[in-house]
Amino acid sequence: MKLASLPGPGPDGRLIVIDRTVTRGLEVPHIAARLQDALDTWTDVAPRLEEAYADLNEGAGFPIDSSQFIAPLPRAYQFLDGSAYSEHMSVIRQARGAKLPDGYAEVPVIYQGTGAPMMGPRDPIIVPDKEGLDLDFEAELIVITDAVPLGASARQAERHIRLIGLLNDVSFRAFVPTEVARGMGLIHSKPLNAMAPILVTPDELGAAWVNAKASGRYKCEVNGVRIGELDPGADLMFSYAELLAYAARTRPLAAGTVLGAGAIANKDRANGCGCLAELRARQTLEGAAVLSPYLREGDRVTLAMYDAAGRSVFGTIDQTVVTQPTLN
Amino acid sequence: MKLASLPGPGPDGRLIVIDRTVTRGLEVPHIAARLQDALDTWTDVAPRLEEAYADLNEGAGFPIDSSQFIAPLPRAYQFLDGSAYSEHMSVIRQARGAKLPDGYAEVPVIYQGTGAPMMGPRDPIIVPDKEGLDLDFEAELIVITDAVPLGASARQAERHIRLIGLLNDVSFRAFVPTEVARGMGLIHSKPLNAMAPILVTPDELGAAWVNAKASGRYKCEVNGVRIGELDPGADLMFSYAELLAYAARTRPLAAGTVLGAGAIANKDRANGCGCLAELRARQTLEGAAVLSPYLREGDRVTLAMYDAAGRSVFGTIDQTVVTQPTLN
Description:
homodimer; alpha+beta; Fumarylacetoacetate hydrolase, domain 2; 5-stranded antiparallel β-sheet; globular
């Protein structure tokens, strides 16, 4: 099934089930007012949400204006982000002469970022009005879980993957080397993220969801110029289930945990890049005289993923950069 | 005023205002059902909660059983933890021959930990049944904010400190060196945390809250043996306002952000330690033949802070270690 959220009355919005063609929807306050409520009691409420979805696909519901959708999960209790595409890490670190994290191919690299608030798909990317922050997007595919028990195996964790979506992991590249060197992870480097408007259950992806990896054509553009057209399933070192099991090794994960696998990157260079840092790193390694710029005021980032039939699965993240004076 | 939460019906419990002597309370569903709801609209609801508090102190309300209290904020959208006591970092790193983070005395060191679920004050510390995890407590004082704007100055951020409390930042020391070396922060090292039962507004601390630092006598015991009796305000390198401003430099902070300043440590060694790692590090540096052990099955940790008159301000964190077999 497909889920989204409408704005208000509170910061978490109202859960809405939408039909397969994203033309009609049903609000479901009698089942779960907010998506978080549904995740808190997923095994109880999912069958009832699926019934609403079946009704919608038989013509029930009301016309929707998907431009009104906010982030489907407007506040997440946890955002864990892996860096599970070797191409992304290796190209970028090679270009700046930095070493790769110890054992990155055997042991997942995961940091904890901020999950609240989650920007909506059309929210501006608001950044401090300062030079040299090196603002970037990262095209990510995310999963959302209900409660994952402490010490769950990958097989167990996979059963807790309830929803799949897209995320723009907004990044300030200027802070990454310093923050990594200090060892405590990414605070200044990783501001708020944006979610694509639609979440889908794994079954909705059909054959494109295999062994907790998703395939498709993930298109990234800046100001209408293609930066990448990537397959998120092609070169992923760890499945989402393996990443979850890693994260749950010493603690349970709360319902509503959002897990990403990092900026999507393919070994096939014809596919382009899932962020500007990787594009610039490739240009550096190729000896380019001028690098593609990082994002600037007014730049527009669009991210969307298409299935084998060319249909957009999650809707579009479409954000424009806006600067704001700050005191700090 | 003083706030706490009672269990159920949902995972966030029910907000209760309690009187100054922690003997009577008033549930306030007509004002805010959950503490998160109050934080979401703090400037609107706080005056009404203060009215309830005033009524309680004049004899209104019902007798309470404080042993029923769960974590006052059972799920936090963000837990940011500084390492702002130089004594803690320097002693521990010196003992294991590791260097201090670059510029730690000028630029705050902060990582993002897990804020959901927050363990209640009497919940067991459930850990995987494995050898060599080096389980430790960390005695911390925390602040909770409403929404802090992007780029807030320390002075602005201070106005968003709405509540103060205590936290046991449970840690697996065995993973820290590896996770710090990888640069991406602490995942396995930092499982779930526990909160003391009572949160108070800054005014409640009176003269013990000055320039966004809290003073008092923070007592830490393991199995009834004193590990430390620390003053959290004495040797704090950055105020809570400065730490918040640092965290908000590139992003706004969601209402319900919990910020710690790390394991409390004093330069006066007579005060003891706020965690076992520091105690062991001191023993190592003093050439002790046998070190105090890390926490083991059945060990009991109690943390509480007392004001100048010897009254417990936040209630007691009282947890016992329980191991659990896991598959991962």
